[in-house]
Fold Tetratricopeptide repeat protein.
Amino acid sequence: MNRDTLGVYGKESSGPRWAAMRELNNAAAKLVLQGRSGEAAAKLHEAIALTRVADVDAAGLDGRARALGNLAALAESQGEPGRVLELTEEALAACDAAQAEAGDRYGTVAVRASLLVNRSQTFQLLGRHDEALADLDAAAAITGGDSADEAYLRVSIANSRSVVLIDLERWEEAEAAVHRALELAAAHDPRLTGHPHSNLALIYQVRNELDAAMAHLRLAEQIHTAAGDAPAAALAIANQGRVAMRAGDLEEGGRLLAAAERALDGIEQPLRAAELRFARATAAHEAGDTALARELLPRAVAALREAGHAAMLAEALALQGDMLAGDGDFDAAEEAHLEAWRVYEAAGAVYHLTRIDQRRAFAATHRAQLATDPDEQARYLGFAFDLAVPAALAADAIRHGFAPGRAREQWAATVAVPAMAHALSLATALGIGALVSELLEHMSATVALHAAAPVDVAAVPEPPEPPPPAPSEGEVLSFTASALVTGASGDFPAVRFALPPRLRVNPWRASQLEPWIQETERRYGFRIRSDEVIDTW
């Protein structure tokens, strides 16, 4: 029995002719789980070569598609997204040929769906969310049976959809998708629940619910370890380190990141290594070890930029901008922050745009504090103010995308209020008292409720029982989905308040806030208040 291989197994054995190809593919899948990427790639190339014969039949073409899919997953871990897309196209062509000859006799439809899911993950990594969603929709359209393969793919599709929703900042839909993935995974194979737990932790981190995030990441580590997936377990540990740092425990964060680095030592995944290097740079920066942060960060940025890893690159560039501003190199800091801004703009990540603008505002404020010329000081404060007010208004308005309840209030307290505090401090420094009063009225008029969450969060379960046996060696022809990460439904059912009205604070004076509301809506591309105007007096 093969208990190490997860993925799409196929309906019918490919027969004795392709036994060697099948064994090479299965062996490669085991090596991937052990982090032995180079050896796995060599075996996959051998498997593919066996199918490149003039009289290849449908079974051989199906096997070629599987091996090419696994090779594409390896290419993604190596930071080669262009290669992933090339290999996936070739694999889909092999599926076409296999299905034209034998239909779904060998389970090729499930292979096609798995290829589409994996490619969607690459598109998500590149920030190409529309294409990621299209591939997930196409995979879902051909996945509707009750077989083990179909159940596995439903888990993968739900989990992948949740990550695209996270990237698109559709938090409640993402949380619902993660819970669906957990439900499906628990029913099909508990070894698959690790990635949904990690994704749920990401959502909790956004809401600053760090204890819940840490609990899910520890559970993910246990599940990946029990499944023998060393790279995924190491990444769960690294994410625990990031959460610990965010909670202010720099010592624990550093310890966990060091543990992840030791776990990843020897695992041939340069993209994961670059992500970890960025995490270590962040830890060093927050711990005051600027020399180590400066040593690690440029290499991480270079690797992430080469790989096209959009979200992680933007975060690394934002940190680079913060560090340059701390060094007093404000022009270079602005350049780094703007590159991060452009990456997030291309991905449609509006919340992250507000975060970058807030960081740019802090840098400009710092620059003003260091300026000795009064005109320069006023210019830099004005620049900071121009960034901080729309960013604060947008961050506050994002709460209207949440249904009433805990998540909405958590966002207001930990994201919107601190952003507005900086904007108010700048308005005060610039002596714009009328705007200060209107901003305070604006914040006071936003509805706030303390109600139960619309989606109840179940208690973190105990680690799963040992996984059920996989199909026998003779029947297994694996196709492993790469890291089950990254879709969106426009009709997600959640009750929300309408946008609050605009406020008329003084009927005898033109509004000081209205031009800023209009600029915020123009800059970030979404409405923050309704057209209705009401008096506050």
